[in-house]
Automatic annotation (TrEMBL):
Its main location: cytoplasm. The keyword Cytoplasm applies. TPR repeats lie at residues 27-60. Keywords: Cytoplasm, TPR repeat. The lineage of its organism: Eukaryota, Metazoa, Chordata, Craniata, Vertebrata. Transmembrane segments: none annotated. One of its GO terms (cellular component) is cytoplasm. This is Protein unc-45 homolog B.
Length: 248
């Protein structure tokens, strides 16, 4: 995804402008220093200035601007979690902060949270319906979400088909071995493991174990192992579903 460059030097709200320099002091100066560093390509120094400004700033509107600016820095650093977090803090102050909304959209897309990213850019397009960047992002994300849904449905169908073959009395040995291997490979991928889990896969794998067939038992155990690897929450859920006694 090509990011649309947005300079963090942005006009402050009327409420922010009404705050006197005496009240703001260092936060304003630190923010301006951060802006200069950002424009000079010194992202780390900009983050440092913005962070200091946030700590001493007492005005929520000015603080929101600083969070929004720091979000732009984190986008440049490809630290998408922090970019989304900072943008959210700005949005908490002003739900119509279009720059913060779009930055969060960019970060969320990179984090794979397409539905949430779509909602943010949808809000942006509502606020500025003629903005070509927002409209293009809205179209592209919509297409990506649709493709993801198609892939999910396709994977669900494949998972069910594999189990149908493995639990069938009519399928021949070679067909069952191929289905078992495909299931094991699918379980090694996080997305595949999740689809198996969501499609009653644990119960079906237990049925394979209960057949007493050595090859089916081995395939089921290897699939369960793949589903548990690298995903603590899913592993815990599987242990509870299977039962400790059956794992001994």
């Amino acid at each position: 995804m090509a990011f649309v460059e947005v300079s963090p030097i942005e006009e402050e709200t009327t409420a922010t402008k009404n705050v006197t320099m005496g009240e703001m002091g260092d936060p304003v100066q630190l923010k301006e220093e951060g802006n200069k560093h950002f424009q000079a390509g010194e992202t780390d120094k900009a983050i440092e200035c913005y962070t200091k400004a946030i700590k001493v700033c007492k005005d929520k509107n000015t603080q929101a601007v600083i969070y929004r600016n720091r979000s732009a820095c984190f986008l440049k650093k490809e630290n998408y979690t922090n970019a989304a977090s900072d943008a959210s803090k700005a949005i908490d102050v002003d739900a119509s902060d279009i720059k913060a909304l779009y930055r969060r959209c960019q970060a969320l897309e990179k984090l794979g949270k397409l539905d949430m990213a779509f909602k943010d850019v949808q809000r942006c397009a509502t606020l500025e319906p003629k903005n070509k960047t927002f409209l293009e992002t809205l179209r592209r994300l919509g297409a990506e979400i649709q493709q993801k849904l198609k892939t999910t449905f396709s994977t669900d169908s494949r998972v069910q088909n594999m189990f149908d073959i493995l639990l069938s009395d009519e399928a021949d040995k070679d067909t069952k071995e191929k289905a078992a291997n495909n299931l094991i490979v699918l379980a090694r991928e996080d997305a595949g493991s999740e689809r198996i889990f969501q499609n009653n896969g644990v119960a079906l794998l237990m049925q394979l174990i209960e057949t007493g067939n050595t090859e089916m038992i081995l395939a089921a155990i290897r699939t369960l192992s793949g589903m548990c690897t690298g995903h603590r929450a899913r592993a815990t859920a599987i242990i509870h579903m299977v039962g400790i006694d059956k794992l001994k």
